[in-house]
TrEMBL record, chain A:
Residues 5-252 form the ABC transporter domain. The keyword Nucleus does not apply. GO terms for molecular function: ATP binding; ATP hydrolysis activity. Belongs to the ABC transporter superfamily. CDD domains: ABC_Mj1267_LivG_branched (cd03219). Keywords: ATP-binding, Nucleotide-binding, Transport. It comes from the Bacteria. One of its GO terms (cellular component) is plasma membrane. This is Amino acid/amide ABC transporter ATP-binding protein 1 (HAAT family). It comes from Bosea psychrotolerans.
Automatic annotation (TrEMBL), chain B:
It is a multi-pass membrane protein. The chain crosses the membrane at residues 6-26, 31-52, 58-79, 86-103, 131-150, 186-207. It is found in: Cell membrane. InterPro entries: ABC_transp_permease, LivM-like. GO terms for cellular component: plasma membrane. Its main location: membrane. Pfam families: BPD_transp_2. This is Amino acid/amide ABC transporter membrane protein 2 (HAAT family). The keyword RNA-binding does not apply. It comes from Bosea psychrotolerans.
Length: 254, 304
């Protein structure tokens, strides 16, 4: 199986505090990989280091075959790596529709002159993106709130917008940081169903989540991180029965 | 009286260009540029010096645009790591540096004497009255063209990205946008517009000196954009016209107050302007023409 994302010996520290101390794992192409670990294990920091927010101190990140260590976020997005945030983030004064459109890549209308002259290519691309945005909005049941500013949405809808706009960027791999946190149980189910469907359509997903029942149901393989390192990986049942994983979560027996 | 009205409306147009410039950079990518008066001065001096050396007026205006854009790029590169208050302080300092250079580099700017006899295009052919009307028409036309272009920009994908950068530049990068490119282009374009406004001012007054480019101009333009509505070109233009007309109207209002010394009347005007700003911010904090969220186009009915 080919790897969508390969992380090799990744290290990162903040002023001497070692947060990532050598993370190694691969996300197989087409998989729905789960990333779990106790609080403070470095999962979100790993996402930040992989997605270009932080520059790793050592180690490498490869996206497919391409070396992408330390690239800025916009280059990584262009290469097909898109992420969501643990606390749903948005642009307060933009509508849901604008959020979706913003993530559409290759818009010639983002060129200063083309924008002022309203070039035909820009209008054509805008039309294509509009149709895609409508499609994604319908799929995620956001089509009735398209004109609302994101600040007027419920917590669950904000999470859906995060997923929707990430899809607009046409990612090869999607890094999701707790997309179900703080969402009511029925919407959690909906989001899970959306993710499963997207994964079936060929999208590689790497998910950070604390809800073990959900991880068990959705993810294979499951990667366990603890104290800034990869602890183990395998199927959910394999890692759940691993004594080291239990120790990482519950503490060591003395 | 007619020439006074024409003078005021021309000044309105010049301030409207400054307001459009500020709205692009502040309402667009969210950079607080308190150095507007500096770019205004750069354009005025660039055109005055170029035409003083024998260049035709149009070349002078072109020079103002180019010099303004280049200075804008230099300022952006110098302030890449700064945002918000820190950027505001540095740009305010920049405007003062420009004014002090104009005051002290006598070989270039004639210092505090100022540059006089700046060419007024077609003044000899049109006569005094004809020239005023012609110039008013020209300035108004330029305001219309710049407004139309910036409005298009505002509603384009480029404008959408600028506003995303204004709201959260880090998240904009995660949406795949090259934030730096947008900031540089917007700042350069904004500076060029402010410089063009300065050039129009110089040839309108036919005399400029460092005294004309006090930081107070920047404050008036912030007042105009705030009152008109940040983030909307039409609001910026409306705000500029209202501010200039209000500033001029206070001249007459103070005549009604008996028993004041001229110095007190001048102070009274400043007070009225301050009160007006507070009222606008209190009654309509989002401005007279607030920013709109564009609606999504009509949704096609799903096939099947």
């Amino acid at each position: 199986m080919t790897a969508a994302l390969t992380i090799d010996g990744l290290k990162l520290d903040f002023y001497g505090v070692h947060v990532l101390r050598g993370v190694d794992f691969t996300v197989p192409a087409g998989s729905f990989t789960g990333l779990i670990g106790p609080n403070g294990a470095g999962k979100s920091t790993l996402f930040n280091a992989v997605s270009g927010l932080y520059r790793p101190k050592a180690g490498s990140v490869r996206l497919g075959q391409a070396e992408t260590t330390g690239l800025p976020p916009e280059k990584l997005v262009a290469a097909g790596l898109v992420r969501s945030f643990q606390l749903a983030r948005g642009f307060p004064k933009l509508s849901v529709f604008q959020h979706l459109m913003l993530y559409g890549a290759g818009q010639p209308g983002e060129n200063l002159l083309a924008a002022m002259l309203r070039s035909a290519a820009a209008r054509r691309r805008e039309q294509e993106l509009t149709e895609r945005a409508f499609g994604i909005a319908r799929r995620l049941k956001l089509d009735h709130v398209l004109d609302n500013p994101v600040t007027a949405l419920s917590g669950g809808q904000k999470k859906l917008v995060e997923i929707g706009r990430a899809l607009m960027a046409d990612p090869k791999i999607l890094l999701l940081d707790e997309p179900m946190a703080g969402v009511n149980p029925s919407l959690t189910e909906q989001i899970a169903d959306h993710l499963v469907a997207l994964n079936r359509d060929g999208l590689t997903i790497c998910l950070i989540e604390h809800d073990m029942a959900l991880i068990k149901r959705l993810c294979a393989p499951v990667i366990v991180m603890a104290e800034g390192k990869t602890l183990t990986q395998g199927s959910f049942d394999e890692v759940a029965s691993d004594i080291r994983v239990q120790e990482a979560y519950l503490g060591r027996r003395h | 009286m007619l020439s006074y009205v024409i003078f005021t409306l021309t000044l309105c147009g010049i301030y409207a260009l400054l307001a459009l410039s500020l709205n692009l950079i502040w309402g667009g990518v969210g950079l607080v540029n308190l150095g507007l008066a500096g770019f205004f001065a750069v354009g005025a001096y660039a055109s005055a010096i170029a035409t003083g050396a024998g260049a035709p007026v149009l070349i002078g205006w072109g020079a103002a645009l180019v010099v303004g854009a280049v200075v804008g790029l230099v300022v952006t590169f110098a302030t890449l790591r700064l945002r918000d208050d820190y950027l505001a302080i540095v740009t305010l300092g920049f405007a003062e540096v420009i004014r002090l250079v104009a005051l002290n580099e006598r070989w270039l700017t004639k210092g505090s004497d100022g540059i006089s006899g700046i060419k007024a295009p077609l003044k000899a052919e049109l006569g005094l009255q004809g020239f005023s009307i012609f110039y008013l028409g020209l300035v108004t036309l330029i305001v219309l063209v710049v407004w139309a272009l910036l409005r298009r920009l505002d509603l384009s994908p480029y404008g959408r990205t600028m506003k995303a950068i204004r709201e959260d530049q880090q998240l904009a990068a995660f949406a795949g946008k090259t934030v730096l490119r947008f900031k540089l282009q917007a700042f350069a374009l904004s500076a060029a517009i402010a410089a063009l406004s300065g050039a129009l001012y110089a040839h309108f007054q036919s005399y400029i000196s460092p005294d004309h480019f006090q930081p107070l101009i920047t404050i008036y333009i912030f007042l105009a954009v705030t009152a008109g509505g940040v983030g909307r070109p039409s609001g910026a233009v409306l705000g500029a016209y209202l501010v200039v007309i209000f500033l001029e109207a206070t001249r007459f209002a103070t005549e009604w107050l008996p028993g004041l010394q001229p110095v007190q009347i001048a102070a009274m005007r400043e007070m009225m302007i301050g009160v007006a700003l507070i009222l606008v911010l209190h009654l309509r904090p989002q401005g007279i023409m607030p920013e709109r969220i564009p609606k999504a186009p009509r949704q096609p009915t799903p096939s099947a």
